[in-house]
Amino acid sequence: MRKHLPLLTLYVVAALAGVLFSRVGTPLPWMIGPLVITGALSASGLVTVAVPIRTRPIGQVTIATFVGAHFTPDALHSLLQTAPMLLTVSLFILVAAILVAQIQRRVYGTSTVTALLSVTPTSPVEAGVLAEHMGVNPGPVVLAQTARIALVVTVVPFLLQLGAPPGAAPLAPVLHHGSLPGLAVTLGGALLGPVLFRLLRFSNPFFLGPLFLAALFSSVGLPSYEIPGPLLAIAQIVLGTWLGSSFRRELLEQRGALIGSVLLSSSLLLGACVLGAWGISALFGAPFPTVMLGIAPGGVTEMALTAGVLGQDVALVTAMHLTRIFVIMPNLGWIARVTHRLDGARRGRPEPGE
């Protein structure tokens, strides 16, 4: 018990930050509060406790189940009519990421592969693994991906709260949210989803597995159980604390030159996404806040949760992120290789790993 005391203390401090941020009316307080306080304590060196990565699935499963339960039959029917917009969002953010990566490479001299894998929105773990496979240092890639997600999670809710037009679409009601059958169905999806998706070797099984089963059960009309508010808050505290703990002082000192490039690329990509969301929402007649959350270069877990908390169309936001995952992740490897070959041909340099 004593060896876990520092970690438990950190969670208590993170929870108190969530309470404070909630009292002052911050959007997504139970995630942003822990993220800010944990990030500040870790970056300053006042806290050196390592938050185990195995704590992240606790938050992922809870939030995935919450999100999936809102894929009602009506929501799914509406979703099937938005396929052109989903593909447009995915292609836009891929092109924007490639352009921003080139700017980062020219300004900071970052290698082509490192810049592309750092900027393109995907899982930090998946990006790091791909970096290793391509023979480049995964450290800067993982740090850049994590920092971008933290920045987006912190900034986007404030942007929407301050500047978005009113009239957010309410969440689709969960069917029979207090029933015992609904509880059984919800628990079944939450427990079986990760197991099934790990067996099938899907990436991010602790989010995509429960999300898929919860959405499947809800879309065919099976009863679901509404995740209680305190449990949802705990899930956010877990995720926010884990994200904030990534900004360790020694890592930031070693990668000091990387911070500027991360801030530049993240800001440029976020700015491009704001413009893209404005254009796509006008083109397809969709609400700007919903498109903004769907196109934002954050993690699907965090953006889906933000959509739910801010009263946006959770199903549509999640679908935009999942479409982006299935468009970008299978193609990122060959795009990075082709980009590097073209760059190497211009500079006469060998490809990484050769």
TrEMBL record:
| Pfam families xref list | AbrB (PF05145)
Q: Which domain of life is it from?
A: Bacteria
NCBIfam families reported in the protein's UniProt record: Gneg_AbrB_dup
- GO cellular component term, pick one: membrane
The organism's lineage is: Bacteria, Pseudomonadati, Pseudomonadota, Alphaproteobacteria, Rhodobacterales
Q: Which residues cross the membrane?
A: 82-101, 141-160, 180-200, 207-225, 231-247, 259-284, 304-327
InterPro entries (UniProt xref): AbrB_dup, AbrB_fam
Keywords from UniProt, A to Z, are: Membrane, Transmembrane, Transmembrane helix
Full protein name:
Ammonia monooxygenase
Q: Name one GO biological process term.
A: regulation of gene expression
